[in-house]
Amino acid sequence: MLNDRTQTIPHTNVPPKRAPWLRVEWLGQTVASLCWMTSVFVYGIASTGDWLQLGAASAWLMANIASAVTDLQRDRR
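The chain above was modelled as a monomer; its predicted structure follows.
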């Protein structure tokens, strides 16, 4: 039963907008890819496998950046 003190709060399914690079999942993936890239240089590039590791980490980082840019463009519309 409702009384005079009951407040109704409109329900919306729209989450608050936040910059893409402030989301935990984006930050975690970006930090992981940067650590992966750094480890390749720390341990040295001595084989084809090392170059492949560097390429994979770089692709992961580029995908994260592209995702953030896409999210920003979508939010501006």
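DSSP finds two helices and no strands in the chain.
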